[in-house]
Amino acid sequence: MNVQVVKTLLLATSVTVVALAVILFPEHTLEASNSGLSMWWTIVFPSLLPFFIISELLISIGVVRFIGILLEPLMRPLFRVPGAGAFVLAMGIASGFPAGAKYTAHLRLNKDITAIEGERLVSFTNCSNPLFIFAAVAVGFFHNPALGVILAAAHYTGNILVGLVMRFHHPEVKEYKEIRRSNQSRVTQAFVALHETRISDNRPFGKMMGDAVYSSIKTLLMVGGFIILFSVLNELIGVIGVAAFLAGILRTALLLLQLPPELDIPLLSGLFEITLGSRLSSESTAPLLAQAMITSFILAFNGFSVQAQVASILADTDIRFKPFFFARLLHGGFAAVLTLILWKPIYINLLSSGAVTLPVFNRNDPLTMIETLYFLLQQTGAWITCFFLVIFILLTVTRNRTSSS
Fold first, then answer.
1. Most buried one in 13, 20, 60, 135, CB count within 10 A?
2. What value does the mean pLDDT take over residues 244-254?
3. What span, in angstroms and rounded, lies between the C-alpha atoms of 359 and 154?
4. Membrane-spanning residues where (predicted)?
C-alpha cells in the first residue's frame, strides 16, 4: 500500500478517535481545557509578549543585522550559522519556546540564512526560559530553589552541545558568503548595515510598533491553541486507556536505564506537555536525583505541544522539522546525563552542604526577583492578557477597514 495512503488513514483514524473521545468525555475535556487555558492566560502570554514585541522591533530597526556582523566570527566557526544566530539564541533563552523557531523562521523569510543553516539554528535555540525553570519547576513544583541551578545548568549546557553536534548537519552544503568591505572595520560595517536596514524599512515607528504587537499576539494565540489542544489530548489518552499501554513501554525503558519505574506516567505526560510532566515528576515517590533527570529530559524534549508549535511556525519556510525533532531527542539525552554528572559536585557538595551561600538557596530569605515575577504574573497576568487581546481586536478592525477602503 502507498505510504501516503497509510498516512492519510492513520491521520483520519486518529482525529476521529479524538473527536469521539471529546464527545464521550466532555467533563474531562472541559477540565483539561481550563487547565491549559489558565496556564496560557496567566503565565505564557504576559511573560512572552514583551520579548516578542521588542524582538520584532529590533529586527525591523536593524539591530539584529548589527549583532550578526559583529558576532559572525564567533557563531560561524562554532555552530556554522550566521552571526545573527547569536540574537536568536539569546532571545530563545530569555523568552523560551517557541521564540527560537519564530526568529529563525524570520531570518529565513528575509533570506538572511539558508534552509540548512535554519535547521542547525532552530535545533539549539528553542529552549525553556529561566523564569519557568527556576520559578515554576524548582520553586513551584519541587519547592527546592537549589534544584533550579542543576536543571538550568544541564538544560543550557546540553543546548550548546546540541548546537555543536548539529554543526555537522549537512557539512557538504555551502553557506552564504559573508559580505565584507575591505576598507571598513567590522564595527563600521555593523553600523552601516544597521542604518541601511532602518532606511530600507520606510514604515513610521508607530506603524512598526503596531505591526510588532499584531504579529506577536497572533503568534501567541497560536501557542495558546496548541497548549489547550495538547492538554486535552494528554487527558484523553489516560481516560480511554491508551496511557496505560504507553506507560508500560516507558516503564520497560526506565528499568533498562536503571531508573525508578514509577516515573513512567510523569515521563509519558511530559512527552506531551512539559508543565504537567514536570509537576507529576515532582509528586512521584522516586529519589530526587531520578526526578531531576526525568524533569531535565522533559524540559529538553519540549513536549509534543511545543514541537507542534515549532512545526507550525516552520511550515511557512523550507526549514524541515525532522532535524529539530532529532535535536530534541539529543538534547533530552544530554540534559539527563548532565544532571547525573553535576548532581554530586554541585548539588550535593556545594548547594546542599551550604558551601555556597546565595539568597536563592536559603528558603528563609525573601523571594528572588524571578520568583517574585512569577507570582506577580499569576496575580496580574490575566489582566495583561485581556488588555492586549483588546488591542489586538482594535488593530484587526483597523486593518480590515483600511484594506476594504
1. 135
2. 87
3. 21
4. 48-71, 83-101, 121-142, 286-304, 325-343, 373-397
CA dist 260 and 185 (Å) reads: 57
d(CA 362, CA 147): 12
Query: And the C-alpha cell for 180?
Result: 565584507
What does the chain come to in residues? Answer: 405
pLDDT tens column, 34-90: 988 888 888 888 888 888 888 888 888 888 888 888 888 888 888 998 888 888 888
Lowest model confidence (mean pLDDT) among 207-221, 272-286, 366-380, 385-399 = 366-380
328: its cell numbers:
530534541
In angstroms, the CA 61 to CA 98 distance is: 22
Structure confidence by residue, pLDDT tens digits, 300-318:
998 898 899 899 999 989 9
User: Measured at the alpha carbon of residue 127, what is the angle toward residues 99 and 280, in degrees to the nearest 5?
Assistant: 120
Q: Biggest alpha carbon distance in the chain?
A: 71
Label residue 367 left, alpha or beta by phi (over 0 means left) and psi (-120 to 50 means alpha).
beta
For the chain, the straight-line distance linking the first and the last C-alpha, in angstroms and rounded, comes to: 52
Question: Is 115 strand, coil or helix?
Answer: helix
Q: Please list the helix, strand and coil fractions of the chain in percent, rounded to the nearest 5, in that order.
A: 80, 0, 20
Q: Is the peptide bond before 266 cis (omega within 30 degrees of 0)?
A: no
Task: Name the burial class of residue 397, with classes exposed (0-12), middle (13-18) and buried (19+) by CB atoms within 10 angstroms of its CB.
Answer: exposed
Report the number of secondary-structure helices (H) and strands (E) in the chain: 18, 0
